[in-house]
Specification:
Radius of gyration of chain A: 21 Å
Number of strands of chain A: 4
Number of strands of chain B: 0
Largest sheet of chain A: 4 strands, mixed
Largest sheet of chain B: none
Radius of gyration of chain B: 34 Å
Number of helices of chain B: 2
Oligomer: heterodimer
Structural class of chain A: alpha+beta
Shape of chain A: globular
Protein backbone atom coordinates (compact mmCIF):
# COMPACT_ATOMS: atom_id res chain seq x y z
CA UNK A 1 0.00 0.00 0.00
CA UNK A 2 2.73 2.37 0.93
CA UNK A 3 4.63 1.65 -2.24
CA UNK A 4 1.62 2.50 -4.41
CA UNK A 5 1.21 5.71 -2.44
CA UNK A 6 4.85 6.67 -2.94
CA UNK A 7 5.01 5.92 -6.65
CA UNK A 8 3.05 8.94 -7.85
CA UNK A 9 5.04 11.14 -5.48
CA UNK A 10 8.25 9.82 -6.98
CA UNK A 11 6.94 10.46 -10.45
CA UNK A 12 5.86 13.94 -9.44
CA UNK A 13 9.30 14.59 -8.01
CA UNK A 14 10.91 13.36 -11.20
CA UNK A 15 8.65 15.65 -13.18
CA UNK A 16 9.54 18.57 -10.94
CA UNK A 17 13.22 17.75 -11.30
CA UNK A 18 12.88 17.53 -15.07
CA UNK A 19 11.07 20.88 -15.15
CA UNK A 20 13.73 22.39 -12.95
CA UNK A 21 16.43 21.03 -15.23
CA UNK A 22 14.69 22.58 -18.22
CA UNK A 23 14.20 25.82 -16.35
CA UNK A 24 17.90 25.86 -15.50
CA UNK A 25 18.94 24.93 -19.00
CA UNK A 26 16.73 27.50 -20.69
CA UNK A 27 18.27 30.67 -19.21
CA UNK A 28 21.79 29.55 -20.11
CA UNK A 29 20.63 28.75 -23.61
CA UNK A 30 18.84 32.11 -23.74
CA UNK A 31 21.72 33.93 -22.10
CA UNK A 32 22.37 36.10 -25.07
CA UNK A 33 22.70 39.81 -25.37
CA UNK A 34 19.66 41.87 -26.16
CA UNK A 35 19.88 42.49 -29.95
CA UNK A 36 19.77 46.28 -29.42
CA UNK A 37 22.63 46.04 -26.92
CA UNK A 38 24.62 43.76 -29.23
CA UNK A 39 24.09 46.23 -32.08
CA UNK A 40 25.14 49.23 -29.95
CA UNK A 41 28.27 47.35 -28.90
CA UNK A 42 29.15 46.35 -32.43
CA UNK A 43 28.56 49.91 -33.64
CA UNK A 44 30.97 51.25 -30.98
CA UNK A 45 28.28 53.37 -29.30
CA UNK A 46 28.83 51.66 -25.96
CA UNK A 47 32.01 50.17 -24.54
CA UNK A 48 33.53 48.51 -21.52
CA UNK A 49 34.92 50.73 -18.76
CA UNK A 50 37.76 49.67 -16.41
CA UNK A 51 35.33 49.87 -13.47
CA UNK A 52 33.26 46.92 -14.73
CA UNK A 53 30.36 48.90 -16.14
CA UNK A 54 29.28 49.93 -19.61
CA UNK A 55 29.87 53.46 -20.77
CA UNK A 56 28.71 55.62 -23.65
CA UNK A 57 31.31 56.33 -26.30
CA UNK A 58 28.97 58.65 -28.20
CA UNK A 59 25.85 60.46 -27.02
CA UNK A 60 23.28 57.67 -26.79
CA UNK A 61 19.72 57.64 -27.99
CA UNK A 62 17.22 57.48 -25.10
CA UNK A 63 16.58 53.82 -25.94
CA UNK A 64 20.26 52.88 -25.76
CA UNK A 65 20.71 54.92 -22.60
CA UNK A 66 17.87 53.07 -20.92
CA UNK A 67 19.18 49.73 -22.09
CA UNK A 68 22.71 50.35 -20.83
CA UNK A 69 21.52 51.76 -17.52
CA UNK A 70 19.40 48.66 -17.03
CA UNK A 71 22.36 46.39 -17.76
CA UNK A 72 24.58 48.38 -15.39
CA UNK A 73 22.00 48.03 -12.61
CA UNK A 74 21.91 44.28 -13.18
CA UNK A 75 25.71 44.15 -13.25
CA UNK A 76 25.88 46.03 -9.97
CA UNK A 77 23.42 43.60 -8.39
CA UNK A 78 25.52 40.67 -9.61
CA UNK A 79 28.77 42.28 -8.39
CA UNK A 80 27.19 43.04 -5.02
CA UNK A 81 26.10 39.43 -4.56
CA UNK A 82 29.53 38.03 -5.52
CA UNK A 83 31.36 40.64 -3.46
CA UNK A 84 29.45 39.53 -0.37
CA UNK A 85 30.13 35.88 -1.15
CA UNK A 86 33.85 36.50 -1.62
CA UNK A 87 34.35 38.98 1.21
CA UNK A 88 35.34 41.82 -1.07
CA UNK A 89 33.89 45.21 -1.85
CA UNK A 90 31.54 45.80 -4.76
CA UNK A 91 34.13 48.11 -6.28
CA UNK A 92 36.87 45.48 -6.06
CA UNK A 93 34.71 42.80 -7.61
CA UNK A 94 33.46 45.15 -10.32
CA UNK A 95 37.03 46.23 -11.12
CA UNK A 96 38.20 42.61 -11.42
CA UNK A 97 35.27 41.90 -13.73
CA UNK A 98 36.17 45.01 -15.74
CA UNK A 99 39.68 43.63 -16.28
CA UNK A 100 38.12 40.48 -17.74
CA UNK A 101 35.43 42.27 -19.73
CA UNK A 102 38.00 44.49 -21.43
CA UNK A 103 40.16 41.44 -22.14
CA UNK A 104 37.09 39.74 -23.64
CA UNK A 105 36.23 42.57 -26.07
CA UNK A 106 36.21 41.55 -29.70
CA UNK A 107 38.11 43.46 -32.41
CA UNK A 108 36.06 46.51 -33.38
CA UNK A 109 34.44 46.91 -29.95
CA UNK A 110 35.21 49.89 -27.74
CA UNK A 111 36.87 49.91 -24.36
CA UNK A 112 38.17 52.62 -22.08
CA UNK A 113 41.91 52.77 -21.42
CA UNK A 114 43.19 53.58 -17.89
CA UNK A 115 43.74 57.20 -19.00
CA UNK A 116 40.05 57.53 -19.93
CA UNK A 117 40.40 57.40 -23.71
CA UNK A 118 37.96 55.25 -25.65
CA UNK A 119 39.94 52.85 -27.80
CA UNK A 120 38.87 50.37 -30.42
CA UNK A 121 39.95 46.84 -29.72
CA UNK A 122 42.14 45.31 -32.38
CA UNK A 123 44.11 42.09 -32.48
CA UNK A 124 46.68 43.34 -29.97
CA UNK A 125 46.06 43.04 -26.21
CA UNK A 126 43.97 45.91 -24.80
CA UNK A 127 45.46 48.64 -22.62
CA UNK A 128 44.38 47.81 -19.09
CA UNK A 129 45.08 48.96 -15.57
CA UNK A 130 48.42 47.72 -14.22
CA UNK A 131 46.54 45.86 -11.46
CA UNK A 132 44.70 43.63 -13.92
CA UNK A 133 45.83 39.98 -13.86
CA UNK B 1 106.33 84.38 29.05
CA UNK B 2 102.71 84.42 30.17
CA UNK B 3 101.77 86.59 27.22
CA UNK B 4 103.26 84.17 24.74
CA UNK B 5 101.43 81.30 26.43
CA UNK B 6 98.17 83.22 26.24
CA UNK B 7 98.76 83.94 22.56
CA UNK B 8 99.43 80.30 21.89
CA UNK B 9 96.23 79.37 23.75
CA UNK B 10 94.20 81.94 21.84
CA UNK B 11 95.59 80.66 18.57
CA UNK B 12 94.72 77.13 19.53
CA UNK B 13 91.17 78.19 20.43
CA UNK B 14 90.78 80.13 17.19
CA UNK B 15 92.20 77.19 15.28
CA UNK B 16 89.78 74.79 16.92
CA UNK B 17 86.75 76.97 16.35
CA UNK B 18 87.79 77.45 12.74
CA UNK B 19 88.06 73.70 12.34
CA UNK B 20 84.62 73.25 13.89
CA UNK B 21 83.19 75.95 11.64
CA UNK B 22 84.70 74.41 8.51
CA UNK B 23 83.43 71.04 9.61
CA UNK B 24 79.97 72.44 10.14
CA UNK B 25 80.03 74.12 6.74
CA UNK B 26 81.14 70.90 5.10
CA UNK B 27 78.40 68.97 6.89
CA UNK B 28 75.81 71.56 5.97
CA UNK B 29 76.84 71.18 2.35
CA UNK B 30 76.47 67.41 2.58
CA UNK B 31 73.03 67.23 4.12
CA UNK B 32 71.49 70.05 2.20
CA UNK B 33 67.95 68.95 1.38
CA UNK B 34 65.58 70.75 -0.86
CA UNK B 35 62.08 70.49 0.49
CA UNK B 36 59.72 69.08 -2.14
CA UNK B 37 56.89 71.38 -3.12
CA UNK B 38 54.48 68.43 -3.14
CA UNK B 39 53.87 66.15 -0.17
CA UNK B 40 55.51 62.75 -0.48
CA UNK B 41 52.85 60.16 -1.10
CA UNK B 42 53.39 56.46 -0.82
CA UNK B 43 50.69 54.69 -2.71
CA UNK B 44 50.01 51.28 -1.18
CA UNK B 45 46.61 51.07 -2.83
CA UNK B 46 47.89 49.51 -6.04
CA UNK B 47 49.57 46.51 -4.41
CA UNK B 48 46.64 45.76 -2.15
CA UNK B 49 44.33 46.01 -5.07
CA UNK B 50 46.40 43.73 -7.27
CA UNK B 51 46.38 41.06 -4.59
CA UNK B 52 42.61 41.35 -4.28
CA UNK B 53 42.14 41.33 -8.03
CA UNK B 54 44.12 38.11 -8.38
CA UNK B 55 42.06 36.50 -5.66
CA UNK B 56 38.74 37.51 -7.23
CA UNK B 57 39.69 36.78 -10.84
CA UNK B 58 38.28 33.25 -10.98
CA UNK B 59 34.98 34.31 -9.42
CA UNK B 60 34.68 37.23 -11.81
CA UNK B 61 35.25 34.96 -14.81
CA UNK B 62 32.57 32.57 -13.56
CA UNK B 63 30.07 35.39 -13.02
CA UNK B 64 30.63 36.70 -16.55
CA UNK B 65 30.23 33.24 -18.07
CA UNK B 66 27.07 32.48 -16.15
CA UNK B 67 25.38 35.83 -16.82
CA UNK B 68 26.44 36.47 -20.39
CA UNK B 69 23.23 38.37 -21.18
CA UNK B 70 24.36 41.34 -19.05
CA UNK B 71 28.02 41.29 -20.13
Amino acid sequence: MRVTKWKPTGLALAAVAATAAVALAVPSAMAQRDPAYAAARAAGQVGEQPDGYLGFVTTPTPAIRALVEDINIKRKAAYTERAQATGSTVQQFAFTSGCNLIANTKPGEKYQAPDGRWLTRDDSPPLRNASCP
Amino acid sequence: MNESKNRARRRAVIGRSLAVMTGATALAACVQIETPDKPIEINLNINIRQEVVYRLDGDAKKLIEQNSEIF
